[in-house]
Design brief:
With 127 residues, this protein is an all-alpha fold. It has two domains: 57 residues; 68 residues, no CATH class. The chain is 73% helix and 0% strand.
Length: 127
């Protein structure tokens, strides 16, 4: 991968995760403000560095494989969370809203699973 594109991808990951973590801490304020800022910044830097490392030219697994696995898991998680409550509890008026939580959670979980599985020695494809 071209170094400029690799840097852009790592910076966009760090910036996007910084914003998403700020939104998460806005809904669940568990830390004091200065500590929260330090935790969010450190997590964003770690995620950006992880992407920088993951898309290096000698990476054992491709970024496309990780994204493909994460997308599959996200779609399955969303479908189960959205349609599952309709089948199991048809009278619940807010049941399908569960899919909007299970989808992103499965997306992140699938990406982590694919990255960890792909970086183990002897593994070639995350699927």
């Amino acid at each position: 991968m071209h170094p400029a594109l690799r840097l852009l991808l790592a910076c966009l990951t760090a910036w996007g995760s910084w914003w998403l973590l700020h939104i998460a801490f806005a809904f669940f304020p568990v830390l004091r403000w200065p500590v929260q800022q330090a935790v969010v910044g450190l997590c964003a830097l770690v995620l950006g560095a992880t992407v920088w490392w993951a898309v290096r030219p000698q990476a054992p697994v491709g970024l496309f494989s990780i994204l493909r696995t994460a997308a599959k898991w996200g779609v399955i998680g969303f479908a189960l969370g959205f349609f599952g409550p309709m089948v199991l509890a048809p009278g619940a008026n807010q049941g399908p809203m569960l899919g909007f939580f299970t989808g992103p959670a499965a997306l992140v979980g699938g990406g982590i699973y694919a990255a960890v599985r792909g970086f183990r020695p002897g593994e070639s494809d995350a699927d």
